[in-house]
Amino acid sequence: MAIVPRRLKRIEVHCPEYETTAMIRINDAHSSGVDHLEVDYRSPDHSHYTIGIPDDWSDQDLLELIFLPPRDPGKQNWPAWEIPAYHFVSSRLFRFWKGEKKPDK
Questions:
Q1: Model pLDDT, residue 105
Q2: Eight-state DSSP code of residue 101
Q3: Residue 8, by phi and psi: left (phi above 0), alpha (psi -120 to 50) or beta?
Q4: In 53-69, which positions are buried (b, 16+ CB within 10 angstroms) versus exposed (e)?
Q5: Which residues contact 33 (CB under 8 A, 6 or more apart)?
Q6: Domain with 69 in it
Q7: How many Cα atoms within 13 Å fall on the side-chain side of residue 19?
């Protein structure tokens, strides 16, 4: 359960990295007890993605992450919300774009 109340529940955005639409939801009833960011893509190559959200994250933190500009194209051209998992091997989001280090757990 989030320490900071969140009003953001769902947002649909264009995902230029995968050239598709991404439906992003906040699952505040995840079986782990940790809120999760869940993404469903309208693409045959990319379907579903989920990652834990730190309790101290606000709607502003989530929106900042979602709307980070795309990185340079290449092999590791992931949407910003996938970078913590795929680049840093983290099961939770963190503010990597602000220099925050990967969480220990």
A1: 63
A2: P
A3: beta
A4: bbeebeeebbeebbeee
A5: 1
A6: 10-98
A7: 3
pLDDT single digits (tens) 48-104: 999 999 999 999 999 999 999 887 767 778 999 999 999 999 999 999 999 999 987
| Token reading at 78 | 């992931």
In a domain? residue 104 = no
User: Higher confidence at residue 72 or residue 43?
Assistant: 43
Short-list 66, 74, 5, CA closest to 39? 66
pTM given for the model: 0.87
Residue 7 has what pLDDT? 83
3-state secondary structure 5-72: CCCCCEEEEEECCCCEEEEEEEECCCCCCCCEEEEEECCCCCCEEEEECCCCCCHHHHHHHHCCCCCC
Residue (of 4, 74, 15) closest to 47 by Cα position: 15
Number of compact structural domains in the chain: 1
Structure tokens at 31: 């079986």
